[in-house]
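Appendix B. Raw example, untouched.
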Amino acid sequence: MFITKVWPFRRLLPDNLTEDVLRCHLVSGAAPLYNVFPARSCSKIDSVIINKEILQLFTKWINKNSKEILYEFNLLFRSSRDGFSSYTFHQKCDNKGATIVVGKISNSNQLVGGYNPLDWNGNGQYKNTTDSFLFSISDLKNATLGRVTYGHQAVYCNNNYGPTFGAHDLYAPNNNSNWQYNVVYYSSINLSGSVTISNYEVFQVVKKISLSLTFKSVISAFY
């Protein structure tokens, strides 16, 4: 089992871990000596809106409270740099897979946005998922999560619109900073019908390979 489960990963594993696993494999009743350091919760973020604490909250929501998967959040779009054109949004965000959209409401510290686990490709097309959500965050103690309740119309892709969730539950019009909000296919995040966005960012959400999890899988096979 050592040859099939551990040896193929020997270049990834620290020498002392490999030696420890081999010792426990060969010596009956041997106790493990190696301790794996926990993985970092998130990496640096290129953002003028959010910080690492917000990313940790997003990770928790995306994983539905599980801590087993980590993510990279790669900036694709920033309205203060790229404008509010739906054309530019789709040019930069289509064909990028899962994304999270974060908007800052004017004259406040409140954030609003949503997670699309699919993509923004297509024109006039609804996409189905039960993993998307909307959110409103005043601070970390006042964050409201609204998961999709009708997954068959969770995301709407249209070249003439910016990011749009549900049946215009959260909708970014073309060349317009006034986002529209309605409660249709998502549970309420306690917003009014319209909010003015001073800036918004879109991040590609990419699963990270966690060496810590690799170590844990190796250790669990032998310890």
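End of appendix B.
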